[in-house]
## 1
Amino acid sequence: MRREEDAGADSVHAEDGEDPAELRALPRKKIETSATIDAMRILVLAAAVTISFLALGPALGSAQTASQKEPAPDVPDAIQAPAGEEVVVYTHASGSQIYTCQATADGKFSWTLKGPEADLHDRKDKVIGHHSAGPTWKLSDGSEVTGKAAAHVDSLDPDSIPWLLVKVVSHAGTGALSSVTTIQRVRTHGGQPPAEGCDAPHQGDETKSAYTADYYFYAPAK
């Protein structure tokens, strides 16, 4: 015989020998199984997205680095960097040009450059190095170069020190400056010696003239 209970649309019918309670639990089990499958699908999809991102990460990083390369400044031909070189480091200097009062060959006295003393800042204004007599540029990563002026042009500001093209003559340490061969000093402001105050009574005296400038460091393009 078949026993049947009419409990409406959601009723469950049990055949002889079947447990009605177990039959009523079947829909719930189906829902739980479906939810588990959906959760597994979400986990698989998330894993696939993560793997794709990790695979593309290096390429995206390389593209970002390439797009962030420092462009070379617009300068007169006389202080252009050699062909085949690219900017590898940029710094903004703020400090002083130091002058000493000395006698010249004709017996007159004039302020003679002793050297710079300046902090080197990156694009975020963080101090990343120091510029001193030599002239020498040293970064906080330990790399250092010394250069010799090869050419100059007058600054756009007549009261400021010239723009320079500098050839690197020596290296020290290992870091961002290790492969640098050429340096430009541009966008100078200030730094000129005083117009007076250097004479026999003041021979040997020193004076400092505040200045700022941008330095571009070049290395052979890779």
Note: The beta strands are 85-103, 109-121, 127-132, 136-139, 144-153, 163-172, 182-190, 206-220.
## 2
Amino acid sequence: MKVVGRYGEGLLEAVPDEIARLERLGYDALTTGELKNEATMRWTLAAHASTRAEIGMSVMIAFPRSPFVTAQMAWELQQMTGGRIMVGLGSQVKGHNERRFSTGPWVSPAKRMEDYVLTMRAVWETFQTGKLMPFEGEHYQFTLCPPAFNPGPIDVPFPKIFLAAVNPAMTRVTGRVADGLLPHAFTTEKYVREVTLPNLARGTEQAGRDISDIEVSAGGMMALAETEEELVDKLLQARERVAFYGSTRTYQGVFEVHGQQELGQKLYEMSVTNRWDEMAGAVPLEVVQEFVTSGTYDSMPDEIERRQGFANRVSIDVSGTSTPETDERVTDLIRRVQAI
């Protein structure tokens, strides 16, 4: 199993040192997200600083950016790294697209994402062959690329495209057009096995593909600690994230699989009345344990194999304090998970 690390959540100038440390620890792939900070600057810095790991995003918000611009950036980085780039795209929810990113009126995110990816692939084919490969979809079109705007071919495979998916429609799109699936942090083993993987398989069938063509990330949340006592504290901290995500109506399907619709509605009502500080206390610890793969450095590989054996890759975040002793523990953990 590939092991994925996280970079870029701190200062921009810290990225090169982060990449050096994470590659030294033995990670196979490294990704950054897009919460407080813009993703593509960190992605570019990481690609330049790296020497061997796959460099990606988990995730960049797609719709605020043109698919041509995203394809163009990925093309150059893929050439520079010798073929180690992963484009991780997410749709975000309606409110953030309309009120934070100002992407225009909200439309079906699944169909729009499918058009987005197909546009990127048409751009790459045009760059590689020198012949316009037009795409005209419901949401995006690519019908013009004079030679002056074509950077030319690369001698490595096209970048990988991974899509973040929670609901069935986006998961089927992933099966039809993407190289990999990034389940949301707000997911569980039960939801992945009963909802996500069947819909991923349906998408691949619709496109005449095989599900083995798709890399699947483990998804969910993780709590890693040195001792069982520390692990309890980590689980209590994770309860806040479960409460936050669980208050979003877009993700209620995950609660429904567990028969927790009432909890989801309660969290939503608390969020709209600004009772944020009370929300974590409304989530029972046994619900948290469904969402969080937890273990010590010694027990975590077995927990990952037991709960996330369906995946090709898993994220293990060790962005905290680095000491020679902790780094040695992390390297050992990575090697044991890679052996799964």
Note: The chain has two domains: 2-223+294-338, 227-293.
